[in-house]
Amino acid sequence: MSVGRHYTHGQVIPLATAVARARYCFQGQGAVYPEHQGMRLLCAGREHCLPGFHVARSDFACVLVEFVVEGRGKLRADGNVCDLFPGVIFSYRMNTPHDIWTEPTDPMTKYFAAYQVAGQRDAMPDFGIAPGAIRWTRDLAAVQTLFEELIREGQLTGELNMQITARYLELILLKAGEAVAPAVGQGPGGTEAFQRALACIEGEFAQLATLDDLGERIGLEPNYICRLFRRFGQETPGQCITRHKLNRAAELLLTQTCAVGEVSRQVGYEDPYYFSRAFKKRFGYSPREFRNVAKQNRMW
User: Fold this and answer.
1) Which pTM does this prediction carry?
2) Domain 188-296, architecture per CATH
3) Is the separation of the CB atoms in 157 and 28 below 8 Å?
4) Of 86-95, 136-145, 184-193, where does mean pLDDT reach its minimum?
5) How far apart are CA 276 and CA 13, in angstroms?
6) 261-285: string of b/e by CB count within 10 Å (b at 16+)?
7) Please, are residues 300 and 255 in contact by the beta-carbon 8 Å criterion?
8) Which CATH code of 3.30.1370.110, 2.40.30.10, 2.60.120.280, 3.60.20.30 fits the domain covering 5-177?
């Protein structure tokens, strides 16, 4: 068993022992650091859980947020047991009894951040993820990058670094706040299918004219894809495809000299007039107007 260690001065370094390839930062544990208004990072880290990993905590003087990037595990809190898998992010208040353990055959890799709010060690910020909430984010890479930057900045010293880590922590909590709540009984299967659909759209949007095209490429029924996007996404699959097409079109208009009709074909629109209408609806300018405005403002 691996248990968070509680220190006599009332703060906690919630480190686990059954981990490998761990990276940590410790920023607010000692009196050497001045009190920062707002959130105050105590420590953060990245841990690869070994097969025997099991954390049981009930006495710690901070708030924690944790984020799974690889593998599978379980969380038990408030009498409920929840599945942990890539993209799951969860938070809990100080002194909330809980257990976390990894799946021995598919060990987790996870990030965590322990923090306090100035003057209120038990306080949660009024934005982002609520205490006790368990959510799933499709922006796994973005949240992972934020945690990596949080750890990097937290390994430095000084008042400015404390402010920088507080901002990274705010961003992590905001990203968690926009994530969705996993459905009852949801495991990694649905999220993996959703990620497969997203990866196909991001890599092959120019070849996707219909939802049927997407379904054929990833081996899923269009109706099931729609259900995945309703559960995990913030837009329909059609909107997601259109967004990628038009964003790429805007890049081409800014960086290439080819005709608008050629840009239309490159992003998968056979009808340049339909492309122009869709482009203007999204950006407020027709493709030609967009390019002219960019030239006038010397955007490149």
Assistant:
1) 0.71
2) Orthogonal Bundle (1.10)
3) no
4) 184-193
5) 56
6) eebbeebbbeebeebbebbeeebeb
7) yes
8) 2.60.120.280
